[in-house]
Request: fold
Amino acid sequence: MSQILAIVTLTKDRIAGGAPIFVVEKETELQQTAFTLEKILDANAHDLKNGTMILVKHT
Reply:
């Protein structure tokens, strides 16, 4: 079972849900934020290729 722990996105208006959402302004900030959260949350960052990355905990 997997759980989405966080979402990092460039497009605030296209994202909703129960996980924490981090809105950033640039692609470089998107990657940097996602990879930092990946380490903090001990999760995996997955790039959805649409300006959004999700942090997932795989169990």
